[in-house]
Design brief:
With 563 residues, the protein is of the alpha/beta class. The protein has three domains: 215 residues, PtsI, HPr-binding domain (Enzyme I, Chain A, domain 2, Orthogonal Bundle), CATH 1.10.274; 134 residues, TIM Barrel (Alpha-Beta Barrel); 148 residues, Alpha-Beta Barrel (TIM Barrel), CATH 3.20.20.60. It has an eight-stranded parallel beta barrel with strand order 9-10-11-12-13-14-15-16, surrounded by five helices. The structure holds phosphoenolpyruvate (PEP) and magnesium ion. Phosphoenolpyruvate binds next to strand 10 and helix 17.
């Protein structure tokens, strides 16, 4: 929630800063690109310092784009042919962006914006111009916002972000969330309407943006902010205590992490372990696969940070499709290629997953813990059989080399394909736990690409269609006596947490920054209230109705003056 002055950001709004225009165009391009690499590298470092490995990765990737030989080669060739150097850089970045944008995938298309942003940065450096940041704390209002702008606006000056386009999974938005900056996206007509506005109020929870709010609207926002602050305070005061409902029903709260750097933040937030350790960071943004040895160290660091008492669930690399890795040479396909991710991928390339599994066995052996591992994108029973075979084979290989592995690996599967949800009773007999990936489960159930803002109305994981699948998964798991976690974004939302706990989910895994509010939401309700909420949610006809039901529990009527 934020209320503040409008800062209209446009890609061309620039402030002149002194800087000599170099005489040698080629040298100028190369020097500016090198400076861009340095700046982006230090933004990545800043993010890493904040424990945000995922966000740091965005700038690492942009730094690589800024030194990409193809991009620079084209810019230099154009400049040598007499083109104005700034235009040459822009044109080269546009070529690279057009190549990415032509790929039939929203996430790759979002990388096109990142390349254009890199081109714009090189040009800014060449011409000695800076983005004109707001003079006082403000809310950025724009069609879209490059992630680097979110990271660069000096601390305290960016109160919020309101975007006409973009999507909840766009880099700038992920970054804002990580920095605790509220954001609303996909607001139709926002830029034109904001043309004459001076003030804007935004609510990141409901997605509302109100331009030049009148006194009663301001009072409403202030009341909502008070409820939010009270929830935050309640959450912070419960930190360190196990999460439970008011009448004592325990729910295990775990953290999602994207690299060893995030372990500290998760522990500080009171995570009882890691429910999703995304390992893609080891496999992406590089030219060849990481070796087994290279992988052991980061896994060991995370295992040791959490120790024997707090489980760490390592997710086998979820790569392919939108998460591109050039060295795998996957054939181009439309869609986000669920068929080529993780275990399905192993059917063609066993080497990659075998080396990851060996590295996990070795890292766990060194840290003296029992590892938990799960496979993403499991679709069939044969996927699980292959996973178990690869797991046991990897253990035998490590043991044969004389390095003692732990006795067992607790092995689960992610339920994020509708087929896996439907097959839950059978899958449950083969594995030790389930972890529901509501992000993908929703997109595949609703046939609504998770990064396409035009389909936002279908992407809500609280849709009863998704909830009924989840209820079936819980029933299948209960029958086999295995626990069920949820590690999609829904688990970190108070409304989602209540519905999921009501459906019988045992563990919720979310970004460390969400754990306080989930703990507070659970502490404010009783088991019968959750059961009643789940029953009504399953019978609801749309996600909005489910949200309204959950809101009733979170904010009892009259608590902030709204009807
Ligand atoms: C999910 O799909 O819900 C999930 C947690 O996996 P990812 O977001 O990494 O695809
Ligand atoms: Mg997923």
């Amino acid at each position: 929630m934020a209320v503040g002055l409008v800062w209209r950001y446009t890609a061309t709004e620039r402030r002149e800063t002194p800087g000599a225009v170099p005489t040698d165009a080629v040298a100028a391009i190369r020097a500016a690109a090198a400076e861009a690499v340095r700046q982006l590298g230090s933004l990545a470092e800043r993010m890493r310092g904040l424990g945000r490995a995922d966000e740091a990765g965005i700038f690492d990737a942009q730094a690589m784009m800024a030194e990409d030989p193809q991009l620079l080669g084209e810019a230099v060739a154009r400049a040598e042919a007499g083109e104005d150097p700034e235009a040459a850089v822009r044109a080269a970045a546009a070529t690279a962006a057009a190549t990415l944008a032509s790929l039939p995938d929203e996430l790759l298309a979002s990388r096109a914006a990142d390349v254009r942003d890199v081109g714009a940065r090189i040009v800014r450096i060449m011409t000695g111009q800076d983005v004109a940041f707001p003079a006082s704390p403000s809310i950025a209002v724009a069609e879209d916002l490059p992630p680097s702008i979110v990271a660069e606006v000096p601390t305290g000056l960016l109160l919020g972000v309101a975007l006409q386009g973009s999507s909840p999974t766009a880099h700038a938005v992920i970054l804002a969330r990580g920095l605790g900056i509220p954001a609303v996206v996909g607001v139709p007509g926002l830029v034109e309407a904001a043309g004459s506005a001076t003030c804007v109020a935004i609510d990141g929870e409901s997605g509302e943006a109100v331009l030049d709010p009148d006194p009663s609207q301001l009072a409403d926002f202030a009341a909502r902010a008070r409820v939010l602050a009270a929830r935050r305070e309640a959450g912070a005061s419960l930190r360190g205590r196990p999460a439970a409902t008011a009448d004592g029903e325990r729910v295990i709260l775990l953290a999602n992490i994207g690299g060893p750097e995030e372990a500290g933040r998760a522990l500080e937030a009171g995570a009882e372990g890691v429910g999703l350790f995304r390992t893609e960071f080891l496999f992406m943004r590089r030219q060849s696969a990481p070796s087994e040895d290279e992988q052991v160290e980061p896994y060991r660091r995370v295992f040791e940070a959490f120790g024997r008492q707090r489980p760490v669930v390592v997710r086998l690399a979820d790569i392919g499709g939108d998460k591109a890795v050039p060295y795998l040479d996957l054939p181009p396909q439309a869609n986000s290629f669920p068929g080529s991710r993780a275990v399905p991928l192993a059917a063609r390339d066993r080497g990659l997953l075998s080396s990851q599994l060996r590295a996990i066995w070795r890292a766990a052996g060194r840290a003296g813990v029992t590892p938990h591992v799960m496979a993403p994108m499991v679709a069939t029973l044969s996927d699980v059989r292959l996973l178990l075979e690869l797991r046991d084979e990897a253990r035998a290989e490590v043991a044969a080399r004389g390095e003692p592995p732990p006795d067992r690996m607790i092995t689960g599967v992610m339920i994020e394909m509708p087929s896996a949800a439907i097959l839950a009773p059978e899958l449950a007999r083969l594995v030790d736990f389930f972890s529901i990936g509501t992000n993908d489960l929703t997109q595949y159930t609703m046939a609504a690409d998770r990064s396409n803002p035009a389909l936002a109305h279908l992407q809500d994981a609280l849709h009863p269609a998704v909830l009924r699948l989840i209820a079936g998964v819980v029933a299948g798991a209960d029958e086999a006596g295995i626990p069920v976690a949820v590690c999609g974004e829904l688990a970190g939302e108070p409304a989602g947490a209540l519905v999921l706990a009501g459906l019988g989910v045992d563990e919720l895994s979310a970004d460390a920054g969400s754990l306080d509010r989930v703990r507070a939401a659970l502490a404010g309700v009783t088991r019968p209230q959750l059961a009643d909420l789940a029953k009504r949610a399953l019978a609801a006809s749309n996600a909005a109705d489910v949200r309204a039901m959950a809101r009733e529990l979170l904010e009892p009527r009259g608590s902030h003056g709204r009807a």
